[in-house]
Structures are given as C-alpha cells and as structure tokens.
What does this fold into?
Amino acid sequence: MISNNIKKFVFGNPINTGAVVKDIDTSVGVPKEFEYDRATDSFSFSFEKDDAVYGLGETVRGINKRGWIYVSNNYDDPHHEETKSSLYASQNFLIIDNSKRCFGIFIDNPGTVTFDIGYTNSDLFTISFEDNDTYFYVIDGNTPYEIVSSFRSLIGRSYIPPIWAFGFGQSRWGYESADDIRTVAKRYKELNIPIDMIYLDIDYMQDFKDFTVNPERFPDFENFVAEMKNEGIHLVPIIDAGVKIQKDYDIYEEGVAGDYFCKKEDGSNLVAAVWPGKVHFPDFLNSKARKWFGDKYKILTDVGIEGFWNDMNEPAIFYTEDHLKEVFSEIKNYENMELDIWSFFEFKDLIGSIDNYPEDYKRFYHDFDGIKIRHDKVHNLYGFYMTRSAGEAFERNNPDKRILMFSRSSYTGMHRYGGIWTGDNLSWWSHLLLNIKQMPSLSMTGFLYSGADIGGFGGNTTEDLVLRWTEFGIFTPLFRNHCALGCREQEMYQFEKTSDFKNIVELRYSLIPYIYSEFMKAVLNNTMYCAPLAFEYRHDERCKEIEDQLLIGSSIMIAPVYEQNKTGRYVYLPEEMKLIRFRSCNDYDEEVLSSGDHYVKADLNELLVFIRKGKVLPLAKPARHVNDIDFENLSYITFDSKPDDYDLYRDDGISRI
Ligand code: GLC
It folds into this structure.
C-alpha cells in the first residue's frame, strides 16, 4: 500500500515483529531527515534549538525526552531512577517537534536500540543498534496529534478491556489465602469504598506454578471465584513467564514433550531460575508453543476468572544454571586472595550481577516458526508474545466477551492484546510524578489501558502519598493499588482518614461514564486518552514546558499535587477554564479562572479538575461497583456549554467489538 504520510525504509534483513498491521511500500535510501554513518551504523538528526522530542512510552524522566540516553532493552529493574536508561518496555516511537515542523519515527527492531537524544552532543539525536536489521518508519503530519493517529493506524487498534476493569482494584503480594482476600473485600465493604477487583499475586499458586491453585490455602477455588463475584468482585490472578521444572507437573511435562521451551545451542532446554526456582521459558515466538501456553489460561477462565496480569516476562532471570556454575567456579579463585579495591569489587560483582545477566540472554534460542534466532536479537518481543499468546487464546476460547489483560513487559504491537502496568515503582513522591509523566507517552504509543502501582510497590508508603496518588490514579484507565511483600500495608482501610479515600474512589466511579467514553473514543479513533498540554496548545510556548498538568480526554485538564506537605500548587492555564475543586462527587466548588498563572489551593482531601471552555464533564451518582453505575441519569458540569454537547460513548462494556 502507498501511504502519503508514512514512509518505510528497510535496512538489512529484519524479521516481521508483528508490531505493524499495515503493509506499506518500501522507500529507497535513507530517511531524508537523517544522516547515516556507515562506520558506526547509526542514524543522526541535528536538532534545532527549540525541538522537543516526545514518545518512547514507558521510560524514566520527562515527557520531553531531549537531554538523555534511552536504551530499548526490556529489563526487570525495580529502581526506576532517572539515571537509568531502560525499563520493562520498548516503544520505539518518537515525535520531533518545534512549532514550525514535526515528524514521527518508529524503529521496528526487536533487539537493543539506543536513542541518544542530545545526551552525548546536545544538538544531536543519534539512533544506533546492536543489530542493524531494522524497519525504519518516518511519519509526516502537521501536528503531533496527526502523527500519533497515523502511527496508531499503522500499528492497529488498541486493546479494549471489559468495563468493570475501569473500577478500583486492590492488590498486594502476600495475600496468602482465600480468607485474606475475603478480609480485603469485607473491609472495603464495611467502609463503603467502591471496588471491582482483587488481584491474586503468586501466593495463590501451588509452589509458584503457572495455572495451579494452592488447594489448602484456596480450597474450592471455583466456588470462591463465584462467591467473590457475588460480592461484585473479580479476582485477577497473575501468570509468570517461567514454567517450573518439576516432574509430574503437567504443564512442564507437556512443554518438554511438545518441544515448547526455549533451547540452548546444544538443543537442551535453557534452565533459568525465577520465583518457582528452576524454570524453562516457553518459546512464545513459536506459534505452536504460543497456542499451547495460551490455551492454558482456559484452566482458570473455566472456573470463572475473567482477567489476568502477565509478569516476569522480559523475561526476568534470577540466574541461569550455566552462569551460576561459572560464578561458583570463579569465586574459588578469590578464596585465599588478599582483596584489594579492584578485586573486592570484581568479587562483589560476580554475585551481584547474576540476575538479568546480559550474557544469559545470548545463551538461548527461539524457533520463530522455522527460523532459529538467538534470544538477544529479539529480546524485546518476549513479553509481547507472551501476552499475544493469551490474547489469541482468549479470541479463540472466549469469543463473546472481553478478558482483562495487562503485562509488565511490552513492545509495540502488544497494545492490541493488553495494557501494561509500569512495574515495580517505589513509594516515592517522585514516582508519583514519574507516573504523571509516563501516561501521555503511553497514550501516544497505543498503550491506553495502563497505570502504575498506586501508593508505590516497594518501600514503606505514607497515608498522604497513597491519597495524593489515588487522586491522580482516578484518571488512569488501570486504577490499582499494589504493594510488595514485607512493605507497609497500604489498603485504604489501613489508614486514618478512610472517608477521604472513599470520597476519591467514589469520584472515580462517578467519572467512569466520562473516562470510559474518552478511552473508547481514543481506541476507536486512534487518538490520545491522555495528552501533554504541548500537543493541544501548539503555539503557547509555556505549554511546551509543562509536564505536571495533563489533558484527560477532550473536556478536562488535571493538575495533580505530587509533593508532600503541600496544600496547593501553581497551575498554568493556557485558556480560560472552570476550576472544579472536588472533595467528593457531590461536594465541590467551581470558579472560573482566567488564562495565565494561578496559585490554587488543594487540601489533602481535594483534587483539581479544570473544565475547558465549551466542554462538558458528565458525572454519575456514586456506585459501589461499575455494574451499578447509572449511565442514564447523569449530571453535567458545563462551562459555556450544554449537557447535550457531550458525546457519551456507550456499549454493553463486555462484548468484543
Ligand atoms: C514482580 C512484579 C510485582 C509482583 C511480584 C511478585 O516484582 O512486578 O508486581 O508483586 O513480582 O509476583
């Protein structure tokens, strides 16, 4: 197909990653915007002074990516510090924009890709590869919005979850039994805090084995799933990538018999270790293995489960059997050594670097439907193909209804099969801000159903952080409080001011008609659910630098408070707007504010929403579950508009469309 605004260049002999759904004719040569350096096999672009760079989905740092070096190399790292270059995802889509011109690029390369965005040389953007077999797309458009829409039509429609997945979900690693889960449900019910999901972390499994349920701690699982559903709660279990090596464990036995696992050079199955101890990794790039593993989700959907989260699928490796042997043999050399500063660190690193060890990713191979490929060359596809395995199986086995699915690791293309959560953040205020900055980049790249662990996953949180994070989280499609084993408990009922939490979560439920409508419009029209101000107010120079206010859908701007001990914040209004200071869905004040800078008060229990001129915000009455929301009798907050001006999207929320 000839596309006027998308050009496709091919370098070397790339594989079809599945990222793209449109067939586009190949252009010859090198993209005109870039210079190609044969010696380093890299492409570079010279920035103009006021160029901003947007995109890359889930990464560290700001909405404008200029000034740092980002490496697409999916990585299990629970320290999302700004000095890092890689997180769990690779979304190689970027827009380079100044007010005079803009264009987008998409690098479809499943191996390691480095984006040096003015890090080495502040005026130079350089793209380099570990393996240069690459598709390179250049996308023209008059505005970032147009470029995003073209890119999204190139990669296909984003995943649509069931509507109940827009409710609140409580999670924690460490709910050990059905009774623990019942307690969570009961405590939320007692406080009348709305809830639709409770997540099951690895604790529900028997010895961390995929598709098993511990029969002592979760007896009669099918009845338990039904009991919770009667309470209006969906249980959402985790599935990990590694399959435990254990004789008589049927999934392991079938995987070995069917040749479904990733192999080493000598043809034996790779042995790595993750939560279950020693595991094999299913070869999700192989369509037979993908079908085999995907069909296993049926074991749980058959007992009433309707949603999953896929984890450890970078894949995370605690160690491989081979590397561990190497380390043990090398460590002996240090036993009688007088350790100097260098040998001490070498010794320390021997142990410290056994997990996610880069050389381990070169030890195993995929059978990519007949093509043998070393894992590191296609590393970033693994999480995508695990989720594709589930998504394809759901289409086969559950053709009539939507199944909730989100994953930790991802690559462009996975957005058609599931959403993502942003992995193991920390209970840091700066990670609340990071979450704010990640959301528009995720919307750009088609990962619309996404969110972070609210309250922070690692570390001990505080009540005010959970509350402020919840105030932001009510605008993220995936709205889940999740926490690590051993950290301070952070369910809303663990804190003093439970009524503040109730009010905020109720507000989320009141906003669901709006949030779901705007989400669905973004999916169906390839637009953005959550956008930076710079995309909308193109010629307002101030908006280019505002990264802590966001547009959510077409009607509102939000300005979250993300620092401790703050009872307000500065907000910049690019146009006149109506401020709504919400304390709950039926307790708020309204004030019209002129364009420009304002200091706006927002106590700990208050959150700020700004309605754009001519727009409407519909609100439902509070409900305990998404199913109870009355979509027929909405109230409307208007600003120079009428309720009818709002185009409410509706469907049954569960059928596939
Ligand atoms: C990983 C996940 C986290 C989960 C934990 C235990 O760290 O990112 O969400 O709780 O594994 O399964």
